[in-house]
Write a structure and sequence with these properties.
- The chain is mainly alpha-helical.
- It has one domain.
- 72% of the residues lie in helices and 0% in strands.
- The protein is built from six helices and no strands.
Length: 163
């Protein structure tokens, strides 16, 4: 029985993460009022630290940049469901974890708060569940994550001399 549950979890988590990320794109990519409120509050906060424009439409962490990262994470997590492409799921899960770590941190440690759109904190709760799901996917795929990390560090910090 635990094997069946494990199989189901390996299907449900990537689909869930992707659905949440893809659903949020309709707000981010259409410049919805809810998105304007969130990124406006964050940009105002960044401006108070001397980084005005960081979360603006053309900023380094604009809604379009974050939305694109969520789209990429969704695609990689879903493609990674195919056994031959498991490493892509690891990469997508890592991107999703990074994006959600940022989201949760900004909700907790900036004036944004956990309920910026008066939705009862639903957006914050969704971010926490997606963060947990991405972390779980990384744990499930820890062997592939280790292999990917080893390959990346080997490529970036190779000690072999090239002749």
């Amino acid at each position: 029985m635990p094997t069946n549950i494990f199989r189901i979890v390996k299907i449900i988590l990537p689909v869930f993460v992707s659905l949440i990320f893809l659903d949020s794109l309709r707000y981010k990519f259409t410049d919805a009022t809810e998105t304007q409120v969130i990124f406006g509050l964050l940009d105002g906060w960044a401006a108070s630290w001397g980084a005005a424009g960081l979360f603006a439409h053309t900023g380094l962490f604009s809604q379009y940049v974050i939305g694109t990262a969520e789209l990429l994470a969704s695609a990689l997590v879903l493609i990674g469901m195919i056994p031959a492409f498991k490493r892509l799921q690891v990469l997508g899960s890592a991107i999703g974890l990074a994006v959600m770590t940022g989201a949760i941190s900004f909700h907790l440690f900036t004036p944004l708060g956990i309920d910026p759109n008066q939705d009862g904190g639903g957006l914050f709760v969704a971010a926490c569940i997606v963060w947990t799901s991405c972390l779980t996917l990384l744990i499930i795929n820890r062997k592939e994550a280790g292999d990917l990390f080893e390959g990346l560090t080997g490529a970036l910090f190779s000690t072999h001399s090239r002749s």
